[in-house]
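Just curious. Invent one:
>
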Amino acid sequence: MSHWRTLALCLSTCWMAGSQAQQITLPAAHPQVESCLAAAEQAESLQLQWADQQPCLEALDLSLVTAERISVLSNLALIQSRLGDFEAAERHLNLAFALGSDQAELYLNRGNLLYLKGDFTGAIRDYSEVIRRDAASIDLAYLNRGMAQQNLGRYMEAEADYRSAQALRPEWWLIAEKIQMLDAERYSVPRSAGQP
């Protein structure tokens, strides 16, 4: 099965569940920062017609403390990715990293972007960093890394990642489906031309 079909099945659950809006815990956040968070949360809930990056762009024009700027950049990247502007989203995530952020969620978000761009090796690197950090989103990192491994034809590694995700979230139906799809792909015999 092509990685686009796999990705289509996973976009609403893996990508958006894994790409989390970055909320900051500062006492008095700028209203524009709060508007940016609200826009990212709308994008996160797949309401694409409401995915408006303008609040985040306006917030970037303010004199923000570093934590606020990182949050705005991450949220802007989430919105841009939902709108299909992967280059801008990656640029803004990299700016968040450049500001000194080392949050596991940024690695997960960038891994998702790299996956969508077809850079499975880069995606695996970022998902592995999330797993190394034992972040709250480790189940998503295992699942997404498994998908990237599968797209590279690394079936044993993909199965190991899917099984790790399943051990963490046994109730998640998508993981069982990924394992079934992996088995079907791995054990399928290509047919000759002219055979039904």
Q: What stands out?
A: Residues 66-82 form the longest helix (17 residues).
